[in-house]
Every structure is written in C-alpha cells, then in structure tokens.
C-alpha cells in the first residue's frame, strides 16, 4: 500500500478533526495550527512550498527551529483544501518522516534503536557520547525528548498505548542529532 | 542532461535522495538542498525527490522509510569527497558499495556534484552574475575553498575545477585559495596578477565562511550582508573585487546533480 493510501485509510478510521503534533486536519484536508479555527478569516492562506517551509523552519520570533518536533509552530495560517498527496507532503514538511515512520510502526516494520547502539557507531565529535553514563540518560530524555519534543522516543520509553481518538502519534525510533549534541556536552562534562 | 536515452529510461520508477549536511544553528545550510530538490521535482525526471540531513530532519537513518520507489539514486549534496561521503553516509545508510540492496529497493550511491566537470559551469555562473556587464576577459577568477590538512580531497576538487575554468579561457586567469590551508586567502594579492578579480566561494551554501570569513581574511570593508555592499569593492591598491555567491547556490547545480546520476548509470547500467 502506498503511503498516501495508508494515510487516507488511517484518517478514515477515526473522526475528524485529526491532530498531528501541533496541527489539526479538517475534512477536505484543511490544515491549521491546532489552536486556530479553520473558518477564522484572519488566518493567512499559505500557498507555495517556500512560504510553508519558512513557516515550519522559524518560530514567531524568527528563530531557526532545527528540531521540527519541538513545540513552537507559528499560528495564524491555513493550508488547503488539499489532496491526500498534498496533505502527505505538507505533513512531511511539518514533521519529516513522521507519517512514514508511524506507518512502519503500525505495520510492524520499525525497530527502535537503543541509545547504546546509536552512540556506539558514532565517530568524530559524537564519539564521546559512548561515554555518557547510563544513569544520565533518563534525565536527558526527560529534558530534551519529553519536555522539548512532541515525538515519542520509542528508543527509550515504552511504546505509547494506541489511542486512535488522540490523532496520529509522532514517533522517534532513534536518538536524533539534537539529542546527540546535548548528550555530547553532558558526556564531555 | 541528455534528453531521452538511457538516463531518462532508467529514471522511470526511481527516486532521488539528496543527502545534505544541515545545521542545528544556521537555517541557510540546508537551503540549497531544499532548492535543488524543489527544482528537480519540477523537472519530473524522478518519481519522487527526498531531502535528508546529517543535522536536521529527516535524518539519513529515517529517510528510507519514506522511499517507495524500487530504485534510489543517493546523491551526497557535497562539493567533494571526505568524511561525510566516505564514512558517515555509507555507515548511516548501510551501504556496501556503489549499489546496495535495502529491503525491496536498490540504492545507487552517486558521486557528489562538486566533483563533476559541469560544476565549473556553476562557478562561472556565479562569477558572471557578480560581474554584471563587466567583461570577464581581463578579470581573474579566484576560487576560495575551505581546505583542510586532514583531507586532500577538498582542495583537490577545487584545483580540478579551477583548471577547467583556466582551460576555458573565459577569464584572464584562475587562482585557488583556501581558508584553512595554503595558499591562504589572506594572501590573495599575490595569488593573481590581474588588477581586478572576482571571488567565488567554493561552498555549497551561503553561511559564515562566505559571508564573514572570506571577506574578513581578504580585508574587505564590506561583507555581502552589509546593506551598503556593492560590486566591485575597491581596495587600497586600487584593485576592484567582485564578490560572488557560493558556487553551490547556482541554479545550474540541479543539472550537475542530474549529470552525476547519469554518470552513475553509465558506470553501472541498470540490469
């Protein structure tokens, strides 16, 4: 099954609106920040990939958002109505890889990678992450992943209970570079 | 890119994965990868075009979950071979050679665009844009790369491209300088004889090296982000310096990426 078909079928299993991270999808595939109402005439209709990419890459203060899963997506915009293919593309821009990873997880094709394995294969500046004490890991995950990111760190925490009413879960199968960067600082200290 | 022919046929049902570096601090680092991907999507040669990054999302490790095509051209969006193309990318993608099977797809690992002979066209494109109406025949082109004593490939690629430009005869001369190895850009006055020169940063994206480091090391009064910046800049010796955009930002780089895919197919024809 193609990923767009999977998404269409996945959405059809639950009632709209559907929540993904900080966005909501309304029927006809309208996309807004979850705190905005799609009928609000003050919302800016976003068209074109450059404008949308800018929206997701910078916060309201104009600061770069290297971690798309981090809370802080700007409000006040609307996308759509979109085709299912364009919706999939938009979600890919918002949360890169997230829908494909969720599809892989739900079809049992995804194996999370424990942090020890991620650290073991690092070279260069991240090689030092191998020295991160095991007892430091939970606090780092709490700080960076639980409080600082909307993705669920499958590589460290038990898998979330499937609650289909809560929308499409953002999953993280392996510690990302943002985490490695912070882990490196901790390990070096 | 050749129209029709083996390349076009082999690309049906195939995907292009552009692997860039990205940054946790600078939004500009990933910009050329997004631009190249968008332009190549528009051309429609591939079923799909995906971006992925070492330091942004999606990661090298995760991008293949998105790929649905059976044949994947993996192009490292770098200017030369080095640590990332020789070690990081093969490791993160689990490559075993030029061609790797991953689940149901075949990964075809191409050369970085910076190594292709057509990259010289990107350098020329940026130089000519900076020169505007100025005739380039009496101007020197100075290509400025990063360089490092730890890896000779970076410098080698710059020298090769400079030689191509020299052979083209378009400019009075063509020199090479580096940020972190000899000949250093701080000695630019002795590297080219022509009075006026156009400087082309041999980097994939704009950033600290092109906006700050090179102008500072050359002793330029204005850097390209200065609102008062204009080409040419006059120096104390009366020499005029035209400062160009980074080579990797030239629109023609899209075609160079395609040329690397084509070169791969020529070296490793589809079964």
What does this structure look like?
The complex is a heterodimer of chains A (189) and B (271). By secondary structure, chain A is α/β, with parallel strands linked by helices. Chain A is 35% helix and 11% strand. Chain A has 2 domains: 3-105, 2-Layer Sandwich (Gyrase A, domain 2), CATH 3.30.1360.190; 112-188, Alpha-Beta Plaits (2-Layer Sandwich). Chain A has helices at residues 3-12, 49-57, 84-94, 98-106, 115-120, 137-146, 177-188, and strands at residues 18-20, 23-26, 30-33, 44-45, 77-79, 152-153, 171-172. In chain A, the strands form 2 sheets. In chain A, strands 1-2-3-5-4 form a 5-stranded mixed beta sheet, with no helix packed on it. A two-stranded parallel sheet of chain A has the order 6-7. In chain A, a hairpin with a 2-residue loop joins β1 and β2. With 271 residues, chain B is α/β, with parallel strands linked by helices. Chain B has 7 helices and 10 strands. Chain B has helices spanning 5-10, 31-43, 83-93, 119-131, 152-168, 208-218, 253-267; strands at residues 14-20, 48-53, 71-76, 99-102, 105-109, 139-145, 173-178, 196-201, 233-234, 240-243. In chain B, α5 (152-168) links the parallel β6 and β7. In chain B, α2 (31-43) crosses α7 and α4 (119-131) packs across α5. The longest helix of chain B has 17 residues, at 152-168. Residues 1-6 of chain B have low confidence and may be disordered.
